[in-house]
Amino acid sequence: MLINNAGVTQPRRVETADGLESVFATNHLGPFLLTSLLLPVLTASAPSRVVTVASGAHAMGKIDLDDLQSSRGYNEIRVYNQSKLANLLFTYELARRIAGSGVTANAADPGFVKTNLRVPFPYSIFSFMRGSAVDGARPAVFLASSPEVEGVSGRYFNQKGELKSSKLSYDEDLARRLWDVSAGPTERPRAASSSR
Fold first, then answer.
1. More confident site: 18 or 135
2. Residue burial 110-142, b: 16+ Cβ < 10 Å; e: rest
3. Which of 40, 94, 111, 145 is deepest in the core (most CB within 10 A)?
4. In this predicted structure, what is the pLDDT of residue 187?
5. CB 104 within 8 Å of CB 186
6. Of the candidates 12, 28, 13, 2, which has an alpha carbon nearest to the alpha carbon of residue 183?
7. Under a CB-based contact definition with an 8 Å cutoff, are residues 35 and 66 in contact?
8. pLDDT digits (tens, 9 = 90+) for 18-51
9. Which residues are catalytic?
10. 3-state SS string over 9-73?
11. What percent of the chain has pLDDT over 70?
C-alpha cells in the first residue's frame, strides 16, 4: 500500500529547488511522481492500494492549466484548494488508468483536524469542529487496510464513509490534461526571479 499524505500551505509564493511553486509541488506533484515511480512495484505485488489524502477544500478549487505554478498571481487559499482538487483529479484518473491491474486508487478526506499544518484562516473560527489527528487518519487507514473496500477504486471517503466530491473533480478531460502536464517534460522553466 501507498498512502500519499502531503500537505503544506504558504502565505507567499515560494519555489522548490527545481523552480516549482512549493504548494502545488508538495501537495500534487510529489504524490504524482512517487506513485508513478512505485506503480511497477505496486502492480507486481497486487493486490495493492494507493490512498491519497485530499481535503474538502477541493470543492472550492479550480485548475488553471495555464498557470499551475501561480506565477501570474498568488493567493494562499486558492493555491491550496487547487492542489487538493488536483489530488482528486489525479486519484480518479489513476483509478481509470490502472483498472484491472489489481491496484486500487482512492482518496481520503481527514476532515478539519488539529495538526501542525499552518492554515490560512484563524483556527478559533473552526475550533468547535476540529477532531484529533487520530480521527483524521481514520479514512486513510480504512482505505489502506479494510477488507470492506477491497477492489474498490476511484472513490472518495471521509470518516463517515463514501461521499461525492465536487462536480469539477469528475471532469475526465481536465483530469487527463492535468495528468499530461504533471507527467510533462523533466525540465521545467523557472519562474522569473521577480515572482520569488
1. 18
2. bbbbeeeeebeeeeeeeeeeeeeeeebbbbbeb
3. 94
4. 38
5. no
6. 28
7. no
8. 999 999 999 999 999 999 999 999 999 999 999 9
9. 80
10. CCCCCCECCCCCEHHHHHHHHHHHHHHHHHHHHHHHCCCEEEEEECCHHHHHCCCCCCCCCCCCC
11. 85
How distant is the alpha carbon of residue 66 from its chain centre?
19
Q: Indicate the DSSP class of residue 1.
A: -
Residue with cell 483498472: 99
- In whole angstroms, give the CA distance from residue 157 to residue 99: 19
Residues 6+ apart with CB under 8 A from 130: 112, 113, 114, 123
Distances (CA, A) of 95 to 16, 39, 136, 155: 28, 12, 23, 9
Report, in angstroms and rounded to the nearest whole number, the Rg of the chain calculated over CA atoms. Answer: 16
Q: What pLDDT, on a 0 to 100 scale, did the predictor assign at position 184?
A: 83
84 grid coordinates: 487538493
Provide the grid cell at 43: 502492480
The number of residues in the chain equals 196
* Other CB atoms within 10 Å distance of the CB of residue 19: 14
CB 110 within 8 A of CB 58: no
